[in-house]
Design a protein that fits this description.
- The chain is an alpha/beta fold.
- The protein is 41% helix and 12% strand.
- A 7-stranded mixed sheet has the order 1-7-6-5-4-2-3, with helices on both faces. A 4-stranded antiparallel sheet has the order 8-9-11-10.
- The longest helix is centred in the C-terminal third of the chain and has 36 residues.
- The structure holds pyridoxal-5'-phosphate.
């Protein structure tokens, strides 16, 4: 058995960094959407693993030959699908540093820097995005990095479940009929969370939306009252800032008032759009957040920090910790017993955790707050530019407001036409778009989010889309 010596690692490492740098230089040469057929990648791999070790060269060359053709290029300036998953030089290097240290930060004691840097950087993020003070770690609240917004929603729901049952659910399982609420535009992770948390899909209410696709508080209140009258126990509302279909913004203030009146937990999911609040002129999107119990957004979507990195905040960390803390003998240690440190294992589902704060710290220090603001503003400006193209064309129309980097639009000739456009542009390999359905109509989504996207790419995308 041969370990890679530090010097061999150094040589292979330089080559690996060169490989990534050259990939980033060549991004535009690849068809954005991979065109391999199902099974095509596996067919090129040996059925059994190598018995003896192979040279690093061989692995690197298969990365080009076998893996790259099966990659959809998320960092391409012509990637306009879903929401972006920004990466950046400093984030990639932060990830490398984390892998190099190889720490598992489940407890403060298992690497004090992993915990303290995370607490600190999440306070920075709270300041950068203007979050209410109650989410900062110097009061009763605080932030933690989860892998994804889906986990944040699940963790919030478990804390809500515990609060709504006065601490019984953890011991006895759910015996009351708890109810969760989100809008018809809420993310599918809310339904997944009600299944996992044991409420059951039938206990999720999809609240109707207004003409901007935002949750209607009057409809929310009516559902809560009706559920209470039937003996159900309303437990949590998941409101969205920047829905996945169309970036609609639920009115947090009125929703928070209702939650307080009826004793519900309010979780706010701003997975994509939360990054925009780094710009003071966009802070209005979080109006009313001071009434929420928890909040999350994904730096891994729009804040230049490669997947995975979700920033999750609670106003009262005691609820979260009571819900998720279990202390077996083998994890006991002096720092934990002293009560003066944070053990982030109590803030998440798994025990073990990666040192994710490093990449965020690298990103914030490289760009500075102003650099991240400029990145967000550029994308919002490009979305406005694309929307102007749509607006000026007699056969296309805007389908929803576009406060961020996403534009929802459609051809006026109906669903068939829009499906054909989608198929045609995606098959061209020159860009990648996805769709949604709004008001029962097929709607095209152009999400601008790659750091490399410029006016030129947006104009060319429009030519391709409109040039049937
Ligand atoms: C993308 C998205 C999610 C899911 O994000 P993950 O981090 O992949 O779990 C949840 N909610 C909204 C509103 C989203 O846009």
């Amino acid at each position: 058995m041969d370990h890679m010596t530090p010097d061999e690692f150094r040589q292979a490492g330089y080559r690996m960094i060169d490989w990534v740098a050259s990939y980033l230089e060549r991004l535009e040469e690849f068809p954005v959407l991979s065109s391999v057929q199902p099974g095509e990648i596996r067919a090129q791999l040996p059925p059994s693993p190598p018995l003896e070790g192979e040279p690093f060269e061989a692995v690197l060359s298969d990365l080009d030959e076998i893996v790259l053709p099966g990659i959809t290029h998320w960092q391409s300036p012509n990637f306009f699908a879903f929401f972006p998953a920004n990466a950046s030089g400093p984030a990639i290097l932060g990830e490398l540093a984390s892998a190099g240290l190889g720490v598992q930060g489940m407890l403060w004691a298992t690497s004090p820097a992993a915990t303290e840097l995370e607490t600190h950087v999440l306070d920075w993020l709270a300041e950068m995005t203007g979050l209410p003070d109650r989410f900062r770690s110097d009061g009763d609240g605080g932030g933690v990095i989860q892998d994804s917004a889906s986990s944040a929603t699940l963790v919030a729901m478990l804390a809500a479940r515990e609060r709504s049952t006065d601490g019984r659910a953890n011991r006895t399982g759910i015996t009351s009929r708890l109810v969760a609420y989100t809008s018809t535009q809420g993310h599918s992770s809310v339904e997944k969370a009600v299944r996992i948390a044991g409420l059951g899909s039938d206990q999720l209410r999809l609240v109707p939306v207004d003409e901007t696709y935002a949750m209607r508080p009057d409809a929310l209140e009516a559902r809560i009252r009706a559920d209470r009258e039937r003996g159900e126990v309303p437990s949590i509302v998941v409101a969205t800032v920047g829905t996945t279909s169309s970036t609609a913004i639920d009115p947090l203030g009125p929703i928070a008032d209702i939650c307080h009146r009826y004793g519900l937990w309010l979780h706010v999911d701003a997975a994509y759009a939360g990054t925009a609040a780094v710009c003071p002129e966009m802070r209005w999107i979080l109006d009313g957040l001071e009434g929420a119990d928890s909040y999350c957004f994904n730096p891994h979507k729009w804040m230049l920090t490669n997947f995975d990195c979700d920033a999750f905040y609670v106003a009262d960390r005691a609820h979260l910790i009571e819900t998720l803390s279990i202390l077996p003998e083998y994890l006991r240690n002096q720092a934990t017993e002293s009560g003066t440190v944070i053990d982030y294992r109590d803030w998440q589902i798994p025990l073990g955790r990666r040192f994710r704060a490093l990449k965020l710290w690298f990103v914030i220090r490289h760009y500075g707050v102003e650099g991240i603001r400029a990145h967000v503003r550029r994308h919002i400006g490009l979305a406005d530019r694309f929307a102007d193209h749509v607006d000026a064309h007699p056969e296309f129309e805007l389908a929803a407001p576009h406060p961020f980097g996403l534009v929802c639009f459609r051809h006026v000739d109906g669903d068939e036409m829009n499906r054909r456009i989608l198929e045609r542009v995606n098959a061209s390999g020159r860009l990648y778009l996805t769709h949604t359905v709004l008001d029962d109509r097929v709607t095209l989504r152009l999400a601008i989010g790659s750091p490399a996207t410029t006016e030129h790419h947006v104009d060319r995308a429009w030519e391709l889309i409109s040039g049937g």
